[in-house]
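Q: How would the structure tokens look for this protein?
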Amino acid sequence: MTKHATRGTLGHKEIRQLKEVYDRARAVQAKYSESHIASRAAKTLIDAFEAENDPEDTEVDPQWLSRAAPRGNA
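A: Here is the predicted structure in token form.
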């Protein structure tokens, strides 16, 4: 997880925060059954952290947020 984060422009504080999110997601996944909604959300986070990044795919589409359909106020 940290290997991917250090390639960018993240500082030590941000890397620590991301590591904490990753560690807590692992703990949630271990605590709950695979069918539990918290475990499924944790798996999604873990998969995002562990995904291989393609160096060619570094450009971010600026319109992605406007296409999102958020629900709730998390």
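The two ends are 24 Å apart (CA to CA).

Residues 5 and 15 are 7 Å apart (CA to CA).

Upvote if useful.
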